Structure prediction request, 253 residues.
Amino acid sequence: MGSALVGVGVGPGDPGLITIKALSELRGADRVFGPSMSVDVVGRAESIVRQAAPDVEVERLVFAIVEDAAARRAAHERAADRVAECLAAGERVAFVTLGDPNVYSTFHHLAARVLERSPGTPVTTVPGICAFQDLAARSGTVLVDGVERLHLVSAVAGPEAIDAPLADPEAAVVVYKGGRHLPELAERLRAAGRLDGAVVGELLGLPGERVGSLALVAAVPGAYLSSILVPPCREGHGEAAGDEPAACEASEP
Ligand SMILES: C[S@@+](CC[C@H](N)C(=O)[O-])C[C@H]1O[C@@H](n2cnc3c(N)ncnc32)[C@H](O)[C@@H]1O
Prediction:
């Protein structure tokens, strides 16, 4: 088939959520790489592959999450060197990634570095199920309907990232990378009248998984692998909430 680099989404955690196309790509590849914190640590994506396709061997690429930017860059360069080496040998290379490779994934950063070393290499992706889709299914949340909108935001830089999207009452808001800010995010949602109905999923499909109402678990920070769904304001929503402020009706002026 010739050398190529393929980013393969393996879903958020449940091995049942890896697609047939992803499995076929992994089995057809000459080499499968997976991101890891260290050579002796099984990465999340690798662990999904182990469960869904034990016949596929995953070689680890260390993407150290270190504060030191130079050390991080060096780790990324080493990973790109190793992938480029395999491409130079004519291999079809797959790189597994949690969820979807086009949604907040390391894949495109890696691919850009690989292309500097191996220009002209065909780069493609196989979509995966995103964490927020799994959470919508598990929590019975209808994310969007009719003309409603969907915002996907990263709270890695701080909880204020949700303020602008929350201002649109007809939009569902999905928050990624907000685990450490769960209490502050819940507070902002409460102030906007949108805490009722908001759900959080931590470690979906992985050991320690937790799915539930954000209002009930937001007293302390959550895991990095936490996703939040805030449904759009809908008529009738929150009516059964008794003395609680109705959803989408801000409790503060
Ligand atoms: C680097 S992004 C990866 C997103 C992934 N590519 C996707 O398509 O869902 C990491 C964020 O994705 C979300 N996430 C990924 N896997 C998750 C899981 N198993 N449980 C809960 N959230 C998850 C969390 O918000 C986490 O902070």
